[in-house]
Amino acid sequence: MTSDVDATAPKYLRDKYAIIGVGETTYTRGSNLTTRALGTWAIKNAMEDAGIPASEVDGMMSYSNNDSTPSPMIAGDLGIRLNFYMDVYGGGSSSEALIGLAIGAIEAGMCNTVVVFRSMNGYSQVRIGGTGVRAAAPISGDAVHTSPYGWLSAGQNFSPSFMRHMYDYGTTPEQVAMVKVIHSEHASNNPKAYYKQRLTVDDVVNSRMIVKPLHLLDCCVETDNATAIIVTRAERAYDYRNTPARILAVAGRVCKPRIDMHFQHGPISTVAGYYIKDIIWPNAGVGPEDIDLTGAYDAFTFTTMLQLEDYGFCKKGEGGDYVSSGIMRLGGERPNNTSGGHLCEGYTHGMNMIIENVRQLRGEVDCYCPTDDQGRRQHTYDYSEEGGCRQVRDANISMNLGWAMPGTGSSMVMRKG
Amino acid sequence: MPQGEYRGMNLNILDIDHENVAYFGHCADHDFHLQQCTDCGLIRYPPGTACPWCQNREFEWTPVEGKGAVHSYGEVHQAIQTAFREHTPYMILIVDLDTQKGEPSEHEALRVAGNLVTPDGELAPPELVRQVGIGSRMRMVFADVGEGLALPMWTLDEDAEQPENPWRYPQEYNGV
Description:
Number of domains of chain A: 1
Low-confidence stretches of chain A: 1-5
Oligomer: heterodimer
Structural class of chain A: alpha/beta
CATH class of chain B: Mainly Beta
Strand order of the largest sheet of chain A: 3-2-4-8-1-9-12-11-10
């Protein structure tokens, strides 16, 4: 199965909703802007991308770790009168979950078109790595079981899961480093990427150690940015400027058992994707073999690998082989994070990987290929050099694999509209 | 309210947080206790408000032996919190208690977190970090924080037979 998914017997709103517009700010370290200004900028770009007027956007959702500006301020800035809004607490894996909730709000008749956004000064204000204000806060209640052990940042929290995968399956640092290598190649063909330099396995494993098994270059790049995605019904989606990306299925914030402290329920090298796959594949009506490109969340090199493995793109324990084989490379069988993802483009809590896949499905990714007199990109499909192409040939079905932590994740499958 | 300062960090437990008050209170007595369900009899960690296996809200605090083996770990070389910066590398250990290991299902265990410390509760020096990996046998000690509050920590169990080569991350960094 490729592009002609069976939409005659929709299951769980399969194929009934679409993403009609995407937009973002630049990825910087030091935006010198408020999250309100960044959010306004990204949403404005997404509205222009869709060609949708403010009068036709009536829903807004966002997520944050109390580090952003809520919807009403930005809606006011853009002259959007809201029939629905909701700003929730959340980080990674919220993107796909909120798209699912946006579909639910529209389906319930609460509104017609929802913009989902994430705005963050993830470098210059509230650093995602946990330094600064986060590290200085008092430690109370349940957090006393973790933070006083110097067990606070995402890398510190996830490290026992990553380490155990190496122990259980013999996964090597060099295999996992290939995630960064490949994403850096992709980023070198992305004018927006914060880090565009191509790297080698040696670069990664010789970079300084942060928390074993994570070297500096196994970790994503904290950036300031905002991102926005516009969701509406499929039947309205063709009224707008670009080819819509049709949503086949979403799964949101699916958890392992004992999510209060997921290590209690092993295997600890198994992640939430183990449970997500039983929702996302049947609901989407496709399987791993049908997916042309993936957006497996790369907060760290390991998160990409663990997820691809547990979703069934390879056998359990063979994630190291999968990510180091070249399958994930542009020109490979199933490229992953063609924008360079969190490791290279910029850290957005997952939004940029959805935006990238929407553009890939349109066949209009913003690489360095020349444009015609209509402004359409004339793709060369030559990925070999920096500053080249990053459009995937015949990109018909994509998957996003969102990550909050080993115990929680989200997912979305889209097809070309 | 149990509270105190540990490595420059302010820790506190609200009085209404009865489960954590009792848990850390036992730790302050250097006596490890966990909640045991009065119905199914299973022990749970960390403290919670019901039994994850049978949903019973009733429990009793039961003494649990602080012994087990390292299930996995993280080894921090670049600290985030200022108080840890002069103590890198430090280890975050996830230790499978011998008590209730593999119950009620194969991959479940009471996996208790703590730093690798010396027998007197100080963060381990590099030469001790080098000796510990997955499979190392550990015993619990406590780091005192304040009135009614101490933190469980892990030190090598001198009385146990240690694995010859506990599994460690294959790449050394700064000699560790």
